[in-house]
Amino acid sequence: MRVNDDVHVLELPMLRDGQTFILNLSLVLDPEGGPTLVDAGLPGQEEAIAAALAEAGVAVRDLGRIVLTHQDIDHVGSLHGLARQSCARVLAGAVEAPFIDGRARPRFARPELLEQRPEFRAVIERLQPTPVDEELQDGSRLDLAGGTRVVFTPGHTPGHICLFLERTGTLVAGDALTASEGRLNGPNPGATMDMDAAGRSVGRLAELDVRAVVCYHGGVVADDASGQLRRVAQELAT
Ligand SMILES: [Zn+2]
Q1: For the chain, N or C: smaller number of CB within 10 Å?
Q2: How many Å lie between the centroid of ligand 1 and the Cα of residue 207?
Q3: Model confidence, pTM
Q4: Residue 32 CA to ligand 1 centre (angstroms)
């Protein structure tokens, strides 16, 4: 799905507890630096991602960069395969990088979680750590789609980042926000480590001049995106 000249959203189906959910990966086009993929689905979704990329006219081998918003398995799952099939540079926030490159155990692979949710074990066993080529900080700038700013948005995980594409006012929100049928909501409380920090992060996002938000869970919010973002920030602050 095309959001604007710079951004396409790739909708990937994911099965959980017998229900189908859609993961919304962002593809950012850039004629000079090549296409950038933001987040990389679950383990084993390389082919589904390749098919979705092809629909947008992009081959995996053409990817210039892959950016990870955070360490969760539905965001980094197919990173290893995609990075190997392309020459893409892998970029992630400095706080999250150790959980992606194998220096630290990601939160979803902690033994106490696996005890509660043993069905995760098979998925996690398929995950391969992947080196991160560039660690991003709050305010880091990427030469992408006319200028892209990294916004540090801790809360869902300790080092979650969002990307703000200045030319189109597109916010790639990862899991810092969710959406349902065009309505913007806060992050999923059941999956968010620190809701107070997450609320403060949304407050920072609400200061940006946002025209469209892409939520990994919930898709695109384009109707009064800025107003909705301020509403969610207010709801989370009270
Ligand atoms: Zn997440």
Answers
A1: C
A2: 23
A3: 0.96
A4: 30
